[in-house]
Amino acid sequence: MRSGSHGLGGDAHRRHQVASLQNSEFTSAEVRRKTRSRTLNAFHYRSAMSAISAWFWSEKFWLPENVTWVDLEHPPPGVDYPRLRHVLYALPLAVVVLLLRLLFERLVAKPCAHILHIQAGHHRRAQPNVVLERVYQSKTSPDSKQLQGLSKQLDWDIQKIQRWFRNRRSQDKPSVLTKFSESMWRFTFYLGVFVYGLHHLWQTPWMWDTRQCWYNYPFQHQSPEQYNYYIAELAFYWSLMISQFTDIRRKAAKLANYAKYQKLCDGLFVVFSFSFFICRLIIYPFWIVYTVLFESWEIVGPYQAWWLLNGLLLVLQVLHIIWFYLMLRIAIKAIFKGKVSKDDRSDIESSSDEEMDSTKTVQQNGGAHNH
Question: Which of 32, 74, 183, 221 is the most buried (most CB within 10 A)?
């Protein structure tokens, strides 16, 4: 009996070993299958990304005929070509620009604002109300139908509800001091980079002969001054992309308006309008667009990206015409009112004509509702 029992125990042990071995083989096969699947997925992903990159950076699209990216990888001694990685160099510099902006606004702009007697000001705060706050988060200016519904729900007068929304909108508006500080920062940067760029451009041959831009294109040396200019511009606009959610949109010419210097504001507007007309409607189309559109065709010849780039330049010219039209509207209003009025492109949310019309409509609707 003992030997029989021992034999049965041995069989069970062998069956357990066989089962364990089969499970181990199954597990190993499953691991190999998953590893193979991940490897294939990674291969397909790299292949897809490589195909997309090859399509996007197609030499036939971006470069003139008989020019390759390899040709631009090895410039002659003493010559430096623009590189794609230069765009990435501007990213860490954007953080530096943000820090410089904070220091500038704190140490320069705000003291200047205090000298000009520009105060931060305090907006009247709306009393806390859960229902109205929920509506405000979805729509800052409810229409008359919504106001009537809120009036019934809260048992408030419509004018009181409208006053609450007006005060709530005022809370979100930046102060005049904030607007002045940001405008002064942008004005200072634009002025500095303009002077630096013009100083370098004045010494180049293509400043006076735009055909020089296209000889031996794209094998053209990038000077240190050009590199510094474009890296500074890229870093500045990268920083704007980071801070765009908190910035207010203002022009540097608004500085005088914030300081309540109306005559200076009017004078700067005239100067700005004249420079806009000269630069955007004369120099840009008859000098910049002309050389890219006609002289490049004659010297380099068209290639696929040529059509895209010229199309974008022409779209920008259309925008210049629209913007100048808006400026003319402001100028015409200024002739009749005696001062520069609100910019049609401005995002000031002070009591506008539309809001006054809306108030009258709501009051009429409210009166009809009360009757």
Answer: 183
pLDDT of 117 reads 85
- The predicted model gives 37-61 an average pLDDT of 81
pLDDT at 231: 93
Q: What is the pLDDT of residue 127?
A: 81
Distance of CA 253 to the CA centre of its chain: 21
**Token match 């959610």: residue?**
245
Residue type, 363: Q
pTM for the whole structure: 0.68
